[in-house]
From TrEMBL:
This is Putative Lipoxygenase 4, chloroplastic. GO terms for biological process: lipid oxidation. Gene3D superfamilies: Lipoxygenase-1, Domain 5. Coiled coil: none annotated.
Amino acid sequence: MAIEDPSQPHGLKLLIEDYPYANDGLLLWSALQGWVRTYVQAYYPNPRVVQADTELQAWYAEAVRVGHADKSGADWWPRLDSPADLASLLTTLLWLASAQHAALNFGQYPLGGYVPNRPPLMRRLVPAEGDPEYDNFLADPHRFFLSALPTLTQATTFMTVIDTLSTHSADEEYLGERRDSYTWTGDAAMVDAWHTFAAEVRRAEEEIARRNDDPARRNRCGAGVLPYELMAPSSPPGITCRGVPNSVSI
């Protein structure tokens, strides 16, 4: 979906320009990447320090050999030999646990809350040719589809589950937020770096809002088109159209 291009703001050229997930995701990826690189460089200034940290190396070895034992012998695993390696691994983990999770999780109810749009199961198989039901299926596939939908109990149970999964609690913390923003560490330089990161996240949210009001972006603005808010870094409690990156920090 993208190719490397140093002339682009994030070093990538999207093959589909109006691609909200990627457009907004790059803003948050860049913010996370800058924050992680700053943090890692402060405590792991050279490759020797990374390689000599036995706890760090044991953590990564366990993740590969135990957590993914079936793939542990693959030759595509990233190495952990330098500050750049560590920053890349941590940025990926933070991205998966925050922005990407939000994009996959918090949009479930708007998509599946209307069960015919995304049935959790179908109670009838599509009949094969020669089956007595086959002619009825061909004659009225719409009626067949409705007859195969979940029962009322099954449908409401499914709706309840994805309602719970898609709901934002009143006490959620989001990217760029923390209650102890000045006291989480005694390292003043890292406190300042975190506030720089938080400011970049806020700018990303403002840019996302601007994009959602841009009529030239037809995949997120216009008649019958919902704004793309799955990457917006804040949200009120409850179910909204947006998904919210979870608060994950180092």
